[in-house]
Amino acid sequence: MRQIAWLDFHDGCWHLVNSKAHDHDRKWASREMALSDLAWEGWIIEGPCGKQPTARHVANWHFYGYGLKQ
Length: 70
Description:
The protein is mostly beta strands. The chain has one helix and five strands, in the order βββαββ. It has one domain. It is globular and about 30 Å long. The termini are close together.
């Protein structure tokens, strides 16, 4: 069965967002470590997608990350 997920950058960490409840707690401080771990687990990584914030005061209001398929 195919899974779809999103690797989201928020509050200084990269978070795995998908439909599995136990994966909501997965987060990494480093983008490289997150991508490496997920690739090793067999995820196909698409992206980066979205746009990083341009103003410091809205640093947590953005849609930026990587699409994942497994």
